[in-house]
Amino acid sequence: MTPPEVGEHVDHLIVGAGFAGLCAAIKLQEDGERDFLVVEKGPDVGGTWRDNTYPGAACDVPSQLYSFSFAPNPEWSSSYSPGPEIQDYIRGVAARSGTLDRFVFDTTFDDASWDGAAGRWTVRITGPGGSRTLTATTLILGAGGLSEPRLPDIEGIGTFGGALFHSSRWDHSVDLTGKRIAVIGTGASAIQIVPELQAVASHLDVYQRTAPWVIPRNDRTYGALERRLLRTVPALGRLYRTGIYWAHEGYVPAFTIEPKIAAPAKKTAIANIHRGITDPALREKVTPYFEFGCKRVLRSNTYYPALAADSTELVTDPIARITETGVVTADGVERPVDVLVVATGFYTTELPVTDHITGSEGRTLGAVWRERGMAAYKGTTVPGFPNLFMLVGPNTGQGHTSMVFIIESQVAYVRDAIRTMRSRGWASVEPRPQALRRWNSDLQRRMRRTVWTRGGCSSWYLDEHGRNTTLWPKSTITFRRQLAAFDPDAYDVRRPTTTPSREDVPA
Ligand SMILES: Cc1cc2nc3c(=O)[nH]c(=O)nc-3n(C[C@H](O)[C@H](O)[C@H](O)COP(=O)(O)OP(=O)(O)OC[C@H]3O[C@@H](n4cnc5c(N)ncnc54)[C@H](O)[C@@H]3O)c2cc1C
User: How far is the CA of 147 from the centre of ligand 1 (A)?
Assistant: First the structure.
């Protein structure tokens, strides 16, 4: 099938070709839903793993679990596989799925508005051939929770004369050898980048606002025999995956019920500091002041030794401004820099794409969320936005386990919603406001007990009102169970007034 032309109708329009969009495409096809289009602004599948090509990029949940359950990979080279290997895996799954003929790359989803009379979304996309308008019965958003880089708002950043780039947009044309390099940020990407840069830079400054908790990574290379066993005895791979899943799930009570349960893990993190750093002043600087788990717990064996190296300075004075040649801190010291790496994360609590989706009341999802707070029923659907399904939506994030598990759970829900709509002849479904209210008040009530709320940190998990709109405050088994089947009782449904067809709409 060739992608639809201007003005055509598709049953399902999927935005994004990362783990989420790809999973939706594969599972819809399994259900016989072949009339879909995946719109991806990048040149390839992969999302996170296409974009994050920085040195040292790797997953921080073991690959056996950080992969699709329906596409196990016995060939992982190590327990925390490097980014390029994950990208190859996603490419391989996409190629074997037989869905790629319905992906359009280098094409941006611009906006969508719900046409209540026709019971469908009118969608504008822009690709190499220009802008096109399509209609779609359902809109499945897999645009990613960590895909829009957030640049820091620092005075003078635009005047910097050296090389400057965000960690997720690495400029590989810049030769880093022997350079003075600065990294702003000490989050998940930064702690992978810092050891790599320390190995090649003449000098490295690391600007830290908040020290993260870092436990050892315990990476392990899979030997040839182990890989052969995993290849020939698939049940072994499943067992392995299940073991990793439960080992990670063991963190949930410490995060959501009682932080004291994390005491042994906290001890391991402190031992990690002591192993990597001997200088007491530096040890103090890298020791977090907040509870273990309040911000994402990171994994590295090499981060602390890289900070302790003679050629590295950990700077904890706040950055006052950036000049043409360096970074000036609040104490007035200017440190010269050739290459400035910004590892300050992503837009998480306000997703730019939501300002381009207009619902049945003529308001954008972004505007609704700014007024009422970011929330979605089951992290997936929103009142006033019929037939919109968000993957990796509000309060679906994980601090301890694989997002692919969550994505598969959400896709199962969306599939069942579509099956239900087909079997009952419904044109659209939209969650009732009271269903969302109940769902969200339960989540926010549980959130009060979590370490993310009472652990003494401010993190990217929280919105401007201090509300956690990103993480799921229960076990992931509960999430899977709650999304196992579509629940029509929570929805307002509409029967078709017109039969969807491939008729033209204005371009
Ligand atoms: C460096 C890094 C490491 C990570 N490591 C882990 C890990 O170890 N374990 C874990 O569970 N999670 C990890 N994550 C989280 C990771 O983002 C998710 O695991 C997963 O990749 C999300 O998949 P996704 O498809 O939802 O989003 P993405 O992979 O971000 O894909 C979204 C896609 O949508 C496209 N898109 C966005 N807007 C538009 C638009 N308007 N038009 C067209 N296309 C659009 C983007 O180009 C992108 O390709 C990591 C994230 C980062 C940044």
Answer: 5
Using most ligand atoms within 8 A of CB, pick from 111, 219, 403 the residue to mutate for ligand 1.
Answer: 403
Residue 257, pLDDT > 70, answer yes
The CA R_g of the chain, rounded to the nearest whole Å, is 23
Look at residue 221 and tell me whether its pLDDT is greater than 50.
Answer: yes
Beta pairing class for 326-329 and 298-299: unpaired
Atom number of ligand 1 nearest to Cα 45 = 49
Residue 121 β-bridge partners: 114, 136
**Residue 122: which of 138, 136, 104 has the closest Cα?**
136
C-beta of residue 455 within 8 angstroms of C-beta of residue 468: no
| End-to-end CA gap in the chain | 21
User: Distance (Å, rounded) from C-alpha 402 to C-alpha 65?
Assistant: 6
Measured CA to CA, the distance from residue 382 to residue 394 in angstroms comes to: 10
The pair of structure tokens assigned to 394 is 């509000």
Q: By CB neighbour count within 10 A (0-12 exposed, 13-18 middle, 19+ buried), where does 177 fall?
A: exposed
Nearest Cα residue to 494 out of 427, 432, 416: 427
Q: What is the pLDDT of residue 453?
A: 80
427 forms bridges with which residues in the sheet? none
DSSP 249-265: HTTHHHHHT-GGGGHHH
Task: Using the Cα atoms of residue 373, residue 377, residue 383 and residue 388 in order, give the sign of their dihedral.
Answer: positive
Residue 490: how many CB atoms within 10 A of its CB?
18
Q: Are strands 108-115 and 103-104 parallel, antiparallel or unpaired?
A: unpaired
439 close to 377: Cβ distance less than 8 angstroms? yes
CA 398 to ligand 1: nearest atom: 11
pTM for this entry? 0.93
Minimum-distance ligand 1 atom for the alpha carbon of 59: 8
Residue 240, number of CB atoms within 10 A of its CB = 19
Q: What's the CA gap between 471 and 474, in Å, rounded? A: 9
Which residues have any ligand 1 atom within 6 Å of their CB?
15-21, 39-42, 47-48, 52, 57, 59-61, 66, 108-109, 142-144, 146-147, 189, 353, 391-392, 402-403
Region 199-208 average pLDDT: 98
- Measured in Å, residue 80 CA sits from the centre of ligand 1 at 17
CB atoms under 10 Å from CB of 221, counted, come to 9
Q: What residue ranges define each of the domains in the chain, with the CATH number in brackets?
A: 9-148+347-494 (3.50.50.60), 157-212+250-342 (3.50.50.60)
Question: Whose alpha carbon is nearest atom 27 of ligand 1?
Answer: 144
Distance from C-alpha of 41 to C-alpha of 435, rounded to nearest angstrom: 34
pLDDT at 497: 61
